[in-house]
Amino acid sequence: MAVEEDIFGTFFDEETKTDVLVKRFTLKNSNNVSVQIITYGATITTINIPDKNGTLADVNLGFDDMNGYLLSTNPYFGAVVGRVANRIKGARFSIKGQQHNVAANRGENHLHGGIKGFDKKIWAANVEGSKVTFSYLSKDGEEGYPGDLLVNATYSLSEDNELVLEMKATCTKPTPVNLTNHAYFNLAGHNEGAKEIYEHELMLSADSYTPAVDAIPTGEIVPVKGTPFDLQTPKLLKNAIPETPENGYDNNFCVIQKNSDNGLNLVGRALHPKSGRVMEVFTNQPGVQLYTANFVPQDDSLPGKGGCFYKKHGAFCLETQNYPNAVNQANFPNSVLLPGHAYIHTALYKFSVQK
Asked: Residue 269, preceding bond cis, omega within 30 degrees?
């Protein structure tokens, strides 16, 4: 499968005062599945998947052009997020007794890499066979982080309809690293909204979660049994969402570790019965953030692809990750990468149909 390359658009970079070219890469297989990714944020812009009748739909929320991705209200659609995804409490952390202050861009806390995180950077791209690798060098001090960090994000699409994202990073100083892809999915179609999201059945392979106050984990790891966060058996989102304290999910779940042969564990499975589209997610990471687009506006202020408007509960995210604020929680999995070591994060999205 050859990777197709074209130009997605340009934008004026205020920092360098130059026009920047944004390239787009298209991955296709023989099953009529296609995925498009751009060099801005190593962002997935399109995922076309057939339903049980063979009808294609784009199941990934995004924008038609760069104007959309440059909006201040763009909620990280499809982007690779870092250097640290999710939140760092107080926008600070200590490594070996030295405190580091990172950008506070969500109140007093740090979110998704800061003011200009990896989602807002132009990545270099290299095609090798049926894979495309995006590379970015985050310099020492960027957004307050210590050390240079070289990041590669490689996308591939298999004949089994598996979209694989492998993220690797190396550093020159000890630094926290927690990358994720922030794709928003609606298996009915990107423009079908909350009405069809509520008809999704969702299962998560997670027997515990990390309770949070103001989206920052308390440090506890609590069993999901007997709570609205127990999604170990499939639930319709229209039944599950109203049971949550915040009328929607924005929570880190602890993925059940089963030591599989390929090192990947099942994160969860989403089914849209009407179309028959199924998405299963696998990862080697300990956690996943389930987000049901609670903070996407309810009015017509976020224009999406094809003239539609994206609104609250119009999609869901399964962001494979380490636990939020892990750098400040000694009982959470380690998130500090050391020089001479490699950060390796795999996320696999397998698409199929149930007839």
From this structure: no
User: Is 100 tagged catalytic?
Assistant: no
Place of tokens 């339903």: 51
Annotated ligand binding at 183? The verdict is yes
Is residue 86 marked as binding?
yes
Q: What pairs with residue 19 in β-bridges? A: 12
Per the structure block, which two tokens stand in for 128?
């090798």
User: Which of the residues 196, 201, 280, 319 is marked catalytic?
Assistant: 319
299 is in an annotated binding site: no
Residue pLDDT, tens place only, 326-342: 999 999 999 999 999 99
Quote the distance between the C-alpha of residue 274 and its chain's center: 25
Nearest residue to 147 via CA among 343, 339, 342: 339
Marked catalytic residue, from 110, 182, 200, 345: 182
Alpha-carbon distance of 145 to 135, in angstroms, equals 18
- What gap in Å lies between CA 293 and CA 288, rounded to an integer? 15
The span from the CA of 203 to the CA of 231, in Å, is 5
Q: Distance (Å, rounded) from C-alpha 43 to C-alpha 11?
A: 15
Question: What average pLDDT does range 122-142 have in this prediction?
Answer: 97
For the question of whether the overall pTM of this predicted structure is more than 0.70, the answer is yes
**Cα–Cα distance measured from residue 277 to residue 272, given in angstroms and rounded to the nearest whole number:** 6
Residues 24 and 202: their CA atoms lie apart, in Å, by: 31
Active site residue 319: yes
- Give Cα 163 distance to the centre of its chain: 13
One-letter amino acid of 33: V
Q: What is the pLDDT of residue 261?
A: 81
